[in-house]
Amino acid sequence: MDSTELIERCDRLAALAARRLAFPTANPAASARARQLHDHLDGFVRPRVADIDAPLLVLLLGPTGAGKSSLMNTIADAEVSKVGVLRPTTKDAVLYASEGDSHRILASGRLSAIAKERLKLAAAPASSDGVAVIDAPDIDSVERDNRELADVLVETSDLCVFVTTATRYADLVPWEVLRRVRERGLPLVVVLNRVPADEHDRATVVADAQRLLGQAGTPSAPGPMDLIVIDEGDLEPRVGGLAREKTRPLLERIARLAAEADERRTVATLALAGALKGLAPLAHAIADDLEHEAIDADALRRIAASAYAEELASLVRALEGGLILREEVLRRWNDFVGADQVARFISSGIGRLRAMLLTAFRGTKAAPVTVVEAEMTSTLEALALRHATDAARRTAVAWSDRSQAAALVARNPGLWSASEGFGPAIREGLDRWMRAIVDDVRAHAGRKRAVAQVAALGVNVVSVAVMLGVFVHTAGLTGTEVGIAAGTAILNQKLLEAIFGEGAMAELIANARARLKALLTSLFKGERERFNALVPAPGGLRELAAELRAAVDGMAP
Predict the structure, then answer these.
(1) Domain range spanning residue 170?
(2) Using CA atoms, how far apart are residues 550 and 98, in angstroms rounded to an integer?
(3) What does the pLDDT look like over 251-304, one tens digit per residue?
(4) Secondary structure letter of residue 157 according to DSSP
């Protein structure tokens, strides 16, 4: 694979890593792996593939108080990195490089992931061209930002110098970072500082450190040295550094790299080869994360879908069983529709009722249209709000029992009830629903030649009769309201049959019922989407996982 194709593959992989970062995740480790891949590609692989002869970046890495800054001062033969008893002393990255190398490194984008205010520049002489050294914040710092900055620098370097002490070399956190160094095949030098002067103790510490390095399978830089031992008290007070004699192997190595372009290229090529080899395992690990999250997202979405579907079905059943309006409202409508003339003619047949509709309601009291519409709206709103809140509560409870979703619910307390916009949305929807019934009544009046009858009563009166026809049934009602509801249902039916005929009446009511169900379904879907929006679409996660696997297939040299 030539460099042009490799750069294109790296660009594709970086874009996929950026897409992964855009997906919300409750798994910090998964997020860290995605960030690691993105930073590694942007900070090292792409710039190094584009320019194999770019300056080497040597990273000084280690735990708090290990002596990284002291080693940096020794390398520079000047106090360029602050040392002291305050931990962590190094809070920002210190880049020691010649002016030309600094411009070249920064222009390449290798350190673009680091905020400008967190990168301090220390000028090196022109004789050091080709090699830049960077002092990282402590990898076990109590400051999270410091640890994250150190992690970014691991992804950008060509050579890692790990500085630790006789009392810290076995600490867990540093070895976790060294695991990443091993994964990306980064050449490594280990500086073991403050080793006891006693020969037996010294030998014991060195042997144990070598054992741990061997078990970890950490790579080493080319050359005879991979472990530099510095005794307790081997210091260079003049520059606040470590004794030059003890660090001479590293100093000479850096000097040779600065002097010999071929040797720099060897190190750069070795680091690049290791980086490319490490891309596939990292990308596959991220793909595994995505596939596991897709399974979790499926489960969470099913929980929400089930809760909202069950509550919607319960609401629809309640409406189909009869919407119970207040007795006084039903009685007022019953009194209006059951005018004496209408009641008498109902028993004489629909034909005679239809013939007298033009005069039946003249002189009667005004129809309580506004009262019934307001009652119907408030009752429907209250019922829908109750069921929507129950669906939200059931979903939030179930999600809270799952570790990957509990944090999402905790950050969104509004999920425990219907949304603030649900009430206004259902009121607006019911207003549209009522207007649609009015339009439907007008259309059927013209089609069935019932214009005069509708005009006699008023289109709003007939429309309310249709609305009540959607709900008012005898089924499921008890007590005094049975008689009132049943009487209202019968009178509504006879009235609508007289105007439109039995078939058209049934069609009007069926249309109104279907529109109401569609409205409620849409509103409940919108409420459920509050939960769905918190987890990525499973299909998108699986698609991205497949693309990541394909992107690294055959990528390593």
Answers:
(1) 54-259
(2) 40
(3) 999 999 999 999 999 999 999 998 898 899 999 999 999 999 999 999 999 999
(4) -
**Beta-carbon contacts of residue 541 (< 8 Å; ≥ 6 apart):** 23, 290, 291, 293, 294, 297
**Is 292 contained in some domain?**
no
- Number of domains composing the chain: 2
pLDDT in tens, 184-232: 888 889 999 999 988 999 999 999 888 887 776 655 444 334 789 999 9
How large is the angle between the packed helices 261-320 and 28-40, nearest 10 degrees? Answer: 140
Say whether 132 sits in a helix, a strand or coil. strand
408 lies in some domain: no
Q: Are residues 308 and 236 in the same domain?
A: no
**Has residue 373 been placed in a domain?**
yes
| 50 burial type by CB count under 10 A (0-12 exposed, 13-18 middle, 19+ buried) | middle
Coil, strand or helix: which one is 264?
helix
**Of 78, 71, 131, 74, whose CA–CA distance to 105 is shortest?**
131
The model's pLDDT over 129-151, given as tens digits with 9 standing for 90+, comes to 999 999 998 887 767 788 888 88
Q: Which residue has the tokens 């009015």?
A: 438
pLDDT tens per residue, range 522-557: 999 999 999 999 998 999 999 999 999 999 987 755
Q: Is the domain of 198 the same as that of 308?
A: no
d(C-alpha 131, C-alpha 101), whole Å: 8
Q: Give the separation between CA 145 and CA 150, rounded to whole angstroms.
A: 9
Tokens of residue 108, six digits:
């390449």
Q: Which backbone phi and psi does 65 adopt, to 5 degrees? A: 70, 15
Taking 60 as the threshold, does the pLDDT of residue 365 lie above it?
no
Write the DSSP symbol of residue 83.
Answer: -
- Phi-psi group of 78: left, alpha or beta (phi > 0 → left; psi -120 to 50 → alpha; rest → beta): beta
Local structure of residue 222 (DSSP, 8 states): S
Mean pLDDT in residue range 332-359: 52
Residues 302, 308, 309, 312, Cα dihedral to 10°: 180
**Partners of 231 in beta bridges:** 195
* Lowest mean pLDDT, pick from 86-100, 180-194, 222-236, 472-486: 472-486
Q: How many CB atoms lie within 10 A of CB 431?
A: 12
Cis check: omega of the bond before 88, within 30 degrees of 0: yes
Main-chain phi, psi angles of 277, to 5 degrees = -65, -35
Burial label for 527, CB within 10 Å (0-12, 13-18, 19+), is buried
Q: What is the pLDDT of residues 16-63, one digit of tens each?
A: 999 999 887 878 889 989 999 998 998 899 999 989 999 999 999 988
Q: Which of 477, 71, 539 is nearest to 298 (CA)?
A: 539
For residue 280, being part of any structural domain is answered with no
Task: Compute how many other C-beta atoms are within 10 angstroms of the C-beta atom of residue 330.
Answer: 23
103 shares its domain with 181: yes
Helix (H, G, I), strand (E, B) or coil at 227: strand
